[in-house]
């Protein structure tokens, strides 16, 4: 039993470490600013990300799109986001754009209104 638990702990640790390593590598490959790269990990919270962009650690115009592409594992996670309720309010359906990491998107101030969906967007990227 101890062997199984030990293996499970190692496996879970490797899986989650791999996700963060891939996220960090993606940010580096996409030239996310060095000052912004510390938030390129799934243990960062939506509040950490908001703070990094608000305080200038990250530049919304140059780091925003590649950060979200990396967050979403460069995959289109729109289905996951829809299932999690992202864009359920028709006036915020554009928030689904941030769930599609398969392509870059241009920053628009309207995305600032997507904070209610931030955790779901993060979770879909982490689980992709």
Automatic annotation (TrEMBL):
Signal peptide: 1-17
TM helices/strands, residue ranges: none
UniProt-listed InterPro entries: DB (IPR002602)
The name this protein goes by in its record: Domain of unknown function DB domain-containing protein
Organism: Panagrolaimus superbus
Chain ranges of the Domain of unknown function DB domain: 26-124
Domain of life: Eukaryota
Alphabetically ordered keywords of this record: Signal
Any Pfam family the entry gives: DB
């Amino acid at each position: 039993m101890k062997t199984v638990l030990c293996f499970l702990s190692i496996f879970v640790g490797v899986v989650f470490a791999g996700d963060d390593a891939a996220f960090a590598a993606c940010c580096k490959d996409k030239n996310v600013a060095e000052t912004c790269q510390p938030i390129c990990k799934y243990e960062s919270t939506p509040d950490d990300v908001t703070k990094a962009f608000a305080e200038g650690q990250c530049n919304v115009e140059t780091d925003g799109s590649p950060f979200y592409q990396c967050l979403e594992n460069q995959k289109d996670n729109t289905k996951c986001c829809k299932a999690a309720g992202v864009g359920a309010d028709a006036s915020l359906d554009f928030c689904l754009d941030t769930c599609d990491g398969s392509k870059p998107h241009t920053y628009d101030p309207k995305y600032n209104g997507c904070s209610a969906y931030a955790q779901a967007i993060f979770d879909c990227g982490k689980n992709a």
